[in-house]
Design brief:
heterodimer; A: alpha+beta; Beta Polymerase, domain 2; Cytochrome-c3 Hydrogenase, chain B; 3 domains; five-stranded mixed sheet; 19 helices; B: alpha/beta; two-stranded antiparallel ribbon; 37% helix; globular
Chain lengths: 522, 174
């Protein structure tokens, strides 16, 4: 069914992607009406510098309407001289970071955005410098100043919370644990967190720009290194986008191997996360148990693929190893893992001190989760049944039996339970996958993409929905690679979840979301 | 919980038997006994490591995290990860050092008391790895602070990290 939308200047359909080009005012209205009237989800939003092609910048906003396997993509075309576009953040809060990033990367400012500070770059990055513009360059001197980090080129103040009894607690970017860097500014009243402002993007590595220096086939290696524990998901999503753009179909066997890898990745992540939560409540036994199961699964990964993070399996056009050949090893390990996992869950859920810490901690309401476009485990724990495996079936997910589990409460315990349910689902899906045999070889031949062809790739990674959008240039090289990780959607929700909790519970809340800094910062 | 502990005491159940070494590549093994001997003499049975992520993809951190699980159990050798650089003998740095982490890494380095050692952990930390040449990275830890030992691998396996720490000790013997 087509939602009644304004007439677009031009309309292009490609597989399940519908591109609709609009002028500035219409673009704003269409995006807002999609969310308000059709309950559409904003999946990602990004800019491109297509001045080499037809002298214009474009802004794409990818929406999907629940119940339809289709992406509606309003496109805003901006002329060479234009430097702003109408912001949709006031009506669609999920767009807040995307718009600020477009402003950082392209110098196109969102007009009417409530927060005009930079997002990705900190103070010392030169003003008026926008890396994703095709004619951009940076001098070594500017780089040195940026790295020094002391000069303030563009002020980036923290939001002030003033009042009697409010103390500011700065934490990071180097943290006490063996974790990634990020700065947190707590405004606390006694022990209670009144406001939290995270400053991220310390690990910004210019990945999207860096993709342009690789070929499409080589880019898989970079995609796998965007976020360590989501390596396989990134590989699949990137390959899927490139394959769709080139117009090639992978074999049934390759799809089966990818589905298997996805579920194995989900399994070691979810079980590891459940165990890791125990580090936040000082339950050493649970932590050790979780770590042991995770280690067993990662050793299994190494035996199957030679990499503990399932790297090197995906390639554009298929897969390099047939993991299904090791069915015996897989089943044996999974059987022992299932037994250990069940005993761990029993132990955790019967430990009153543990469950008591998790219950009612870090509550994220359904309303805020929906507005901010939260995805993955965090969304499902807050009652939003969003799972790309269900809503946009890909690989072999259309023939698998599984549920998108949801809980209503949205606290740390709910997120842990969702992980548990999904881990069990993954185990049964691996069994299901190993029951049948699949046609075809491992890879198919790669084609040269057409000039300025583009396509989306998407998977449900252990953290949530993950999107890639790729576009090729005239020579068939990457022109623009946009990637949107689940962590990028979920970080803005963390301050809402920790509001009203005590500072010592922050690590617990943070672990329950299990967000990747590197995936968010890229 | 109590039941679990009692059961383990009575049955003397061991989840994993500790091996004396871990393989890295065929024909190459990290011998824990060697490491132990050196640790006892050089570091008086206590080596404290501060892990600094300078823009890695998080895989290196998880491998270091894995070193503390019951399989590898690094703590039994007297090696442990500490929460502050002021408590550390060794800085273990991962990632290609993104520009926005450069200052934080330098500050951490100067906060570590001398004699301090720096180990670059993972391909990115060694020379920028796959991110080499990107505008937002410095192509390796050595471009920011002096490095004493390197651990290649993307990510290095937990046993490779152990080997890297052993390397560092060998260097100090000479």
């Amino acid at each position: 069914m087509n939602p009644a939308l304004k007439e677009s200047r031009s309309r292009r359909e490609f597989r399940n992607e519908v591109y609709l080009e609009y002028g500035a005012a219409d673009f704003h209205d269409v995006c807002c009406s999609l969310v308000k009237d059709h309950r559409a989800l904003l999946r990602l939003m990004f800019g491109t510098d297509e001045r080499l092609r037809d002298g214009s910048f474009r802004i794409y906003a990818v929406f999907s309407i629940p119940g339809q396997d289709r992406f509606l993509i309003p496109v805003l075309q901006l002329g060479d001289k234009e430097s702003s576009f109408p912001s949709i953040t006031s009506e669609v809060p999920a767009a807040q970071w995307y718009e600020r990033e477009i402003s950082d990367m392209f110098g196109l400012s969102p007009e009417g955005h409530p927060d005009t500070r930079r997002l990705v770059f900190h103070e010392a990055f030169p003003a008026g410098s926008h890396p994703l513009r095709k004619d951009w360059s940076i001098t070594d001197e500017e780089k040195a100043v940026w790295g020094e980090g002391r000069k303030i080129n563009v002020p980036h103040p923290f939001m002030e919370v003033a009042g009697e009894g409010i103390v500011q607690i700065p934490v990071g970017p180097v943290h006490a644990g063996v974790i990634e860097p990020g700065h947190f500014r707590f405004s606390a009243i006694g022990e209670t967190i009144f406001f939290l402002e995270p400053r991220l993007f310390y690990t910004h590595k210019g990945t999207e720009k860096h993709f342009e220096s690789f070929g499409f086939s080589d880019g898989v290696r970079l995609a796998e290194r965007v976020s360590g524990t989501d390596s396989f998901s990134h590989g699949v999503a990137y390959c899927m986008a490139v394959e769709r753009m080139m117009g090639i179909e992978i074999t049934e066997k390759a799809a089966a191997v990818r589905t298997l890898g996805m579920e194995l990745e989900r399994l070691y992540n979810h079980i590891g996360d459940i165990g890791f939560l125990c580090a936040g409540t000082a339950l050493a036994v649970g932590y050790a148990k979780g770590a042991v199961i995770r280690e067993e699964l990662q050793c299994l990964n190494e035996r199957l693929t030679g990499s503990r993070y399932l790297r090197g399996v995906n390639a554009v056009g298929g897969v390099t190893t047939d993991m299904l050949e090791h069915a015996d090893d897989l089943l044996r390990t999974l059987d022992s893992v299932t037994v250990e996992y069940k005993s761990m869950m029993k132990l955790l859920l019967s430990s009153v001190s543990h469950v008591e810490r998790l219950e009612n901690t870090g509550k994220l309401s359904r309303d805020i989760a929906a507005r901010l476009g939260v995805t993955g485990v965090a969304a499902r724990a807050s009652g939003l049944a969003d799972d790309v495996r269900k809503s946009h079936p890909h690989l072999l997910y259309d023939r698998m039996i599984f549920e998108a589990h949801t809980l209503e409460k949205g606290d740390v315990l709910a997120r842990m339970l969702i992980r548990g349910e999904e881990a069990e689902c993954s185990i049964s899906m691996v069994h299901e996958l190993l029951e049948s045999s699949y046609r075809g070889g491992l890879t198919v031949a790669v084609k040269r993409p057409e000039a300025y062809a583009s396509a989306l790739g998407y998977v449900e990674s252990p953290r949530g929905s993950l999107f890639y959008w790729v576009m090729s240039d005239k020579e068939g090289k990457p022109f623009r690679v946009k990637l949107r990780t689940p962590s990028y959607c979920n970080w803005p929700a963390v301050p809402f979840a920790v509001h009203g909790n005590i500072v010592p519970d922050f690590p617990l809340c943070n672990k329950s979301f299990n967000l990747s800094y590197s995936g968010c910062d890229r | 919980m109590l039941k679990e502990i009692l059961k383990n005491l009575i049955t003397r159940k061991r989840t994993i038997t500790f091996p004396t070494g871990f393989p890295i590549e065929p024909g190459q093994t990290v011998k824990l006994v060697d490491i132990q001997g050196k640790l006892d003499t050089i570091f008086k049975r206590s080596l404290r490591i501060r892990m600094v992520d300078a823009g890695s993809c998080n895989a290196c951190e998880w491998e270091c995290q894995a070193l503390m699980n019951p399989f590898y159990d690094l703590q039994r050798l007297g090696i442990d990860f500490v929460a502050s650089p002021r408590h550390a003998d060794v800085l273990l740095v991962s990632g290609p050092v993104s520009r926005q982490m450069e200052l934080a890494l330098k500050k951490t380095y100067f906060a570590t008391p001398e004699p301090r050692r720096v180990v670059a952990c993972g391909d990115c930390a060694v020379n920028g790895g796959i991110y080499r040449g990107s505008y937002a990275v410095t192509d390796g830890v050595a471009n920011v602070i002096p490095v004493d030992a390197i651990i290649p691998g993307c990510p290095p396996t937990p046993s490779a990290i152990m080997l890297g720490i052993a390397q560092l000790m060998n260097k100090d013997v000479k």
